[in-house]
Amino acid sequence: xxxxxxxxxxxxxxxxxxxxxxxxxxxxxxxxxxxxxxxxxxxxxxxxxxxxxxxxxxxxxxxxxxxxxxxxxxxxxxxxxxxxxxxxxxxxxxxxxxxxxxxxxxxxxxxxxxxxxxxxxxxxxxxxxxxxxxxxxxxxxxxxxxxxxxxxxxxxxxxxxxxxxxxxxxxxxxxxxxxxxxxxxxxxxxxxxxxxxxxxxxxxxxxxxxxxxxxxxxxxxxxxxxxxxxxxxxxxxxxxxxxxxxxxxxxx
Length: 252
Fold this sequence. Notes:
This protein is mostly helical.
């Protein structure tokens, strides 16, 4: 868990203005006391409350998004137990940090300190830039891996069908070539998908702060996995059509 960027204790604001009254010899007629100091204090207070409201709103947007992601991870049958545990822990820790920050910001009385705490909502958590995209990447990778495993089973059944057709004296040369290509795409897709969780689960907000493209390689790997698996699926349909018995010749 990342530490808060500044101490969590609230600092008190002290506003003191000294207004010197003019002497009788030099001041002339007495003028009303200026109301500017009161206006300045009001403006400062309004500024603090405006910042506070924006900060709390930022937390309020992120907490429901994290809760929805947590539910999605729990309900997704493709996510492995290991990845579900890692994602859930990251979501829960992030939500806890945000709740603590919200309480601290509500108690802040110093504008500079409040702004530091508000920056922590973004810099030390990166909900929309890192946490939620990472969830989507890992879920997508596990889903692709499951799809690859299913396609592997399909390939095995197609291999049996090819062997039977060959034993029956049919020409299955093209089907064999397509099956080999299908298997290669399955292997490539599963390898690409399998690389994603390990590449993103260990990333921290500091990693994203240092490099905004830190998730790009994982996104590219997932796109590559999906493309390979789509090719494999299309080849499975092609092989199935190639193995269909030839249409009977019409009798004359």
